[in-house]
């Protein structure tokens, strides 16, 4: 389920203003703007002050912070043990770790429905990554820790048109 968080509009406007303009430029310019925006967000200890974020015990919850045209920004709240499916995206995907740590596992598809893990890394507070949907960019995000984690995601899709950024989900292949 997706909920709409209501941040202070003035605070959000200064951070998100460049994203819709940059989305109409080159992919490199957009990713650069998204990265700079996320880096600025990661430095804001007050970013989520005053917001009531949805939480899902044992899972993760998506909270819309900003959506305009082909840009949507989400706060993802990760309960301990929460994980996404193995997936790729139909749009650009940038994320930053705002609180705690998350684990990112990368995969290689072996057919249209299965994938094998190729690498993994723990992403700490302040980490920012961006990718275009030139794929395959298969990954899974999880919170393997015992504390809640929060990540901020900037996607190049209209949240009023698409339910999520996920294009395809994969099963982990038995090896």
TrEMBL record:
A Pfam family reported for this protein in Swiss-Prot or TrEMBL: CDO_I
SUPFAM superfamilies with a match to the protein in the record: RmlC-like cupins
GO biological process, one term: L-cysteine catabolic process
Assigned keywords, A-Z: Dioxygenase, Iron, Metal-binding, Oxidoreductase, Thioether bond
One term of GO molecular function: ferrous iron binding
UniProt crosslink position (3'-(S-cysteinyl)-tyrosine (Cys-Tyr)): 93-155
EC number: 1.13.11.20
Chain residues that bind Fe cation: 87, 89, 139
Family, as annotated: Belongs to the cysteine dioxygenase family.
Name listed for the protein in its UniProt record: Cysteine dioxygenase
The organism of origin for this protein: Methylobacterium symbioticum
Lineage: Bacteria, Pseudomonadati, Pseudomonadota, Alphaproteobacteria, Hyphomicrobiales
């Amino acid at each position: 389920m997706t909920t709409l968080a209501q941040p202070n509009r003035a605070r959000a406007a200064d951070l998100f203003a460049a994203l819709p303009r940059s989305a109409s430029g080159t992919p490199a310019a957009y990713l650069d703007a998204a990265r700079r925006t996320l880096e600025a967000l990661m430095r804001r200890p007050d970013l989520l002050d005053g917001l009531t974020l949805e939480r899902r015990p044992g899972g993760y919850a998506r909270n819309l912070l900003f959506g305009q045209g082909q840009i949507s920004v989400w706060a993802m709240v990760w309960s301990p043990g929460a994980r996404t499916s193995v997936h790729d995206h139909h749009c650009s995907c940038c994320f930053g770790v705002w609180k705690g740590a998350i684990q990112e596992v990368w995969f290689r598809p072996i057919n249209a429905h299965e994938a094998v893990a190729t690498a993994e890394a723990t992403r700490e507070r302040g980490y920012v990554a961006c990718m275009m949907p030139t794929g395959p960019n298969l990954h899974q995000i999880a919170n393997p820790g015992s504390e809640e984690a929060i990540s901020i995601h900037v996607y190049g899709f209209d949240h009023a048109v698409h339910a999520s950024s996920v294009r395809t989900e994969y099963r982990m292949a038995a090896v």
